[in-house]
Design brief:
This protein has 464 residues and is α/β, with parallel strands linked by helices. Helix content is 38%, strand content 20%. The structure holds S-adenosylmethionine and iron/sulfur cluster (SF4).
């Protein structure tokens, strides 16, 4: 098990800070192509029913709507005040549930379920009940509270009655969007969220017996400084959520036009931003949180921490997860699934989503079928991102390759990282050091065959 300490080595961060993917999938989305459509997806999905052991399912539902637009946002969302849009959307989502449900055998339990967005709490409580009931008609949901059933909650769109309704329909995990408690920052990003609203959601979640509560924070936002963010962290630590996601604000106004409303001159300078990150890691670890990796922290007794300690952590499109063995079925516009050795993505906008379902077709518009080599590299990258270590013997046993021979070029590239103290490189494995933990993406990138071929590198945000 890797050491979970983090060391903040500014010189190395500067040296290695280049753009790179977050590896919620490998290969990453730029490799997906339109040659993989509904027919290919259907065939693969059906074939997974015949595999032994039969894998359980993980369901992801994308609810794209948001009441207002946060200027920083890089998520797939549609800003609207028109609540009737959700009525139409659900109508079509129900049709997709029927089509997808028919592909998978009835005895495949849903061990994991997630509603993401946009803002799933854009739906009212009746719509949430209807969506879960429709899901239960077509999939085998767990009714004993043992699944990992989570939802992203925006406190501006969720009162304590919403939280009670979520628990009642079967959710046991909440992830709550906060970003920053500072009013000036909130104003600059168009997300006015009084602290009382956030604390009301946290209190309600505790009352209702949610198993795990996570807060989303962001650093690098306009007007943030070490001093202001220290204040936000203090309040967060007081609330003591089980998990924290602390995201690096990716300022890419050419890709995300609403970010143009954030002025460059209001952003913290790179040194200040790095100092905020260093403070964050220091304060959270001092407060008892474990740095899981890739922006995530959790309390020592949280399932995520335990899964990491047992080498059972996994990574999927929602980030870190404790369920490794599921087929991920994704529903809703833009949603990305992972079924068998494939990835598949639904169309990104509502019109073609509705058109496909009107003609009784799955709205899959692109995807990717992994080769054996992709699967091997995916396994290597996943173990690195989750364990911060790699056991060459295990790779050889699982994949029937000679590690040193197969990854000769990669091992040569890792020498420099070893010399810089990011990793300890031995004959039969490698371990990421506390100095290397923040640069795990860079270490994983060494094993990315597509990046090695110099494809798509410019499309990602900076690592730190
Ligand atoms: C879909 S939102 C969460 C649910 C809900 N819409 C909300 O905002 O409360 C997912 C999270 O992504 C993060 N996020 C959004 N845009 C980002 C960006 N440009 N850079 C880094 N993180 C971002 C935010 O922390 C946000 O809470
Ligand atoms: S952060 Fe959440 S609420 Fe804000 S625009 Fe993005 S998805 Fe919508």
């Amino acid at each position: 098990m890797a050491d979970q300490q983090v060391e903040f080595a500014l010189d190395l961060i500067r040296k290695y800070d280049k753009s790179g993917p977050r590896y919620t999938s490998y290969p990453t989305a730029p490799q997906f192509h339109e040659g993989f459509g509904p027919a290919a997806y259907t065939e693969v999905a059906r074939a997974t029913n015949a595999e032994t052991p039969k894998r359980p399912l993980s369901l992801y539902f994308h609810i794209p709507f948001c009441d207002t637009l946060c200027f920083y946002c890089a998520c797939n969302k549609i800003a609207t005040k028109d609540r009737s849009k959700a009525v139409t959307y659900l109508d079509y989502l129900f049709r997709e549930i029927e089509l997808q449900g028919a592909l998978f055998d009835d005895d495949r339990t849903v061990d994991q379920l997630h509603w993401g967005g946009g803002t799933p709490t854009f739906l009212n409580s009746d719509q949430m009940r209807a969506l879960m009931a429709k899901t239960a008609e077509h999939f085998r949901l767990r009714d004993d509270d043992s699944g990992e059933y989570g939802i992203e909650v925006d406190p501006r769109a969720a009162g304590s009655d919403t939280i009670a309704a979520l628990r009642e329909v079967g959710f046991n995990r909440l992830s709550v969007g906060v970003q920053d408690f500072d009013p000036r920052v909130q104003e600059a990003v168009n997300r006015i969220q009084p602290a009382e609203q956030t604390f009301a959601v946290i209190d309600a979640a505790r009352r209702e017996g949610f198993h795990s509560l996570s807060l989303d924070l962001m650093y690098g936002l306009p007007f943030q400084s070490r001093a202001t963010f220290a204040h936000t962290l203090e309040r967060v630590i007081e609330a003591r959520p089980d998990r924290l996601a602390v995201f690096n604000y990716a300022h890419l106004p050419d890709l995300f036009p609403p970010q143009r409303r954030i002025r460059d001159e209001d952003l913290p300078a790179p040194e200040e931003k790095l100092a905020i990150l260093a403070d964050t890691i220091e304060r959270l670890t001092a407060a008892g949180y474990v740095y899981i990796g890739m922006d995530h922290f959790a309390l020592p007794d949280d399932e995520l921490t335990r899964a990491q300690q047992q080498g059972q952590l996994h990574r999927n499109f929602q980030g870190y997860s404790t369920h490794a063995d599921c087929d991920l079925v994704a529903l809703g516009a833009t949603a990305i699934g992972s079924v068998g050795a494939t990835y598949s993505q639904n169309v990104r906008t509502l019109e073609p989503y509705y058109e496909a379902l009107d003609s009784g077709e799955l709205p899959v518009f692109r995807g990717y079928e992994l080769t054996a080599e992709d699967c091997l590299r995916r396994a290597v990258i996943t173990r690195l991102m989750c364990d911060f270590a790699l056991d060459f013997d295990r790779v050889e046993a699982d994949w029937g390759v000679d590690f040193a021979e197969h990854f000769a070029a990669e091992l040569a590239d890792l020498e420099e990282m070893a010399a810089d103290g990011l990793i300890e490189l031995g004959e039969r494995g490698l371990t990421v050091t506390p100095r290397g933990r923040l640069l795990i993406r860079n270490i994983a990138m060494v094993f990315d065959a597509y990046l090695r071929a110099k494809e798509g590198a410019q499309r990602y945000s900076k690592v730190i």
